[in-house]
Amino acid sequence: MNILSVKACLCFLGILFLNEESYCQTTITKWQFDKKAAVSITYDDGIPTQFTEAIPIMNRLQFPGTFFIVTGDIKGSRYHAKFIGRPVKEIMNETKTVSTNKNNFFERASAAKFLGYKGTTDYFFRAGSLYEEGKPKAAYKIIDSVYTMALAGLFKPGIDTTYEAGLSAENSWSDFKRYAAQGHEFACHSLSHPYMAILDTPNMYYELQKCKEDIRTHLGDENTFSAEVPFGTEDERVMEYVLQSKLFPALRNKMPEPYLQEINRGYKEQPGLSKKEYVQWQRGPLSKTQLSVMKSWVDTLLAHNNIWLVLVFHGIDTLGWEPINHEELVEYFQYIKNKEDSLWVATFKDVTKYMRERMAVKVTQEKSENKITLTLLHSLDTSLYNLPLTLKTYLPASWKGVNVHQNNKTRKSEILKDDNGKYVLFQANPNKGKIELTKR
User: How far is 223 from 263, CA to CA, in rounded Å?
Assistant: First the structure.
C-alpha cells in the first residue's frame, strides 16, 4: 500500500472528523452498547433479604447489582468496630471538668459507643443526627449526657452493635463470594454503619479501610472499587477526607468530575435540565414510594441521553430501613427489562469506569481502501480501568462485510445503517493494541 494513500484523523469522544470521502468517522458511544441511558441498581447495609429475595429476581433478568455491605459483625471478618485513640477512661475523666465543644467533640463522639456499656450507641446516633441537621451545640449536649450517665453507672456493662451491623451479621462471606461470581459487585459501607460526620479522622479511616481489607480478603480486589459512606452523608469534612485518602476509586455520594452533575437522593432538581456530559441521578425508593413514580424515573431516562439512574434500595420485605415489597421489585425490574434495548443496566463500578475511560481516551485512526486502523489510549490506571468501550465507525459504501481484530482476536461484525451511512458497532479495549477493521 502506498503510504501516501493512508489518511489519518483523530477522533475524541463524540467529535467527528470527516475526510473527503465522508467516512473516517469514529465515535465512542456515550453508554456501552450505544444505549440511551444507564441504570445501576444498588443496595445498602447488607440486609439478608436483599440476597434471599432481590438477587434471585435480578438473576432471572440477568441484571447485575451493587451491594454496599457492613462487614464488622460477619462471621469470619478479621476487623470489628472499636475505638482508635487514647484510653476511654482518660476521655471520660476529662468530661468531668471540660464540657463537650468543637475542639473535643469528634474524639468524644468516636469513643461514645465503646465506653463498655450497653445503651450508649443510641446517644451516639442522636448526636450524629443533630449534627447532620446543622445543630452542633445540641449534639454536644447529647455527648455530655452520655458521658455523665456512664460515669454515674446508669448503663449496664456491655457493648452495643448497630441495627445494620446486626442484620448484616446474618450473612456469610461464602454466600457473598457466590453472588460475586454471578456478576454482582460488592462495595464498602463501613464496619459498623456509624455517623461518619461525628467521627474523628483516625476512626473514620479505620471504619472504611478495615471494611475494605476484609472485602479484599474474602472477595478480591475487584470488589474494592466503590464505597458509600453511611447515611448518604454529604458532610464536607467527611467527603474531603475520604476523597483525599484515596481509599476507593469511586464514592457513590461524591464524584467531583467536571463533566458529571450529581443529583443525590434528597434533591428535587430535574436531571433533564443539566448541560453536563453526564448526570448521576440517585433515587431512593421508600416504603411509600408509588410504583408509578419509580417507573417515571425510567421514562425520564429515555427522554434524554446523558442520565445515569442510580437506584438506592435498603430494606426488602420486612427487614431493613424503609423496606420495599419484593413483589414490587418483580414488576419494577421487569419494567426496566422491557426497555433494555435502550438501557444499559450495569454495576456502579462499571458505569463509573466507562464514563472515566471515555472522557480520558484518545483515538487515533488511519484508513486505506480495505482497512481502518484505530488506537485507543488513556493515561488512567490500567489495572483499574479495563472496561471495553463501544465504538461506532462509519464504513465505505462499498463494504459488504467487516471483521474486527484486536489482541489476537477476530470477530465478524454486523454492518448497520442509519441516515449517515453504513457503520459498525464494536467493543474495544483501550491500551490493548491496535484495532483493525478489514473489509470482507
Answer: 25
Based on the fold, state whether residues 412 and 425 are members of the same structural domain.
Answer: yes
AA letter at 395: L
Query: What Rg value do the Cα atoms of the chain yield, rounded?
Result: 26
Distance CA 188, CA 350 (A): 16
Angle at which helices 136-151 and 105-112 pack, to 10 degrees? 50
**Which neighbouring-strand residues pair with 218?**
none
Answer yes or no: are the C-beta atoms of 56 and 175 closer than 8 Å: no
Quickly count: other Cβ atoms within 10 Å of residue 218's Cβ. Answer: 20
State pLDDT tens for residues 286-317. 999 999 999 999 999 999 999 999 999 999 99
Residue where a domain terminates, one of 303, 318, 341: 341
The three three-digit cell numbers of residue 299, written as one number? 421514562
- pLDDT score, position 440: 86
The torsion defined by the Cα of 62, 67, 73 and 75, in degrees rounded to 10, comes to 30
Contacting residues for 221 by C-beta, under 8 A, at least 6 apart: none
Residue 114 maps to a domain? yes
Name, in order, each residue with C-beta under 8 angstroms of 239's C-beta and a sequence gap of 6 or more. Answer: 229, 233, 251, 253, 254
CB atoms near residue 145 (< 10 Å): 14
Virtual torsion, Cα 26, 32, 35, 39, nearest 10 deg = -150
Quote the pLDDT of residue 6.
34
Q: Residue 305: name the closest of 352, 347, 271, 333 by CA.
A: 271
How many Å apart are CA 340 and CA 63, to the nearest integer? 10
Tally the domains of the chain.
Answer: 3
pLDDT given for residue 23 in this prediction:
60
Domain that holds residue 117: 88-157
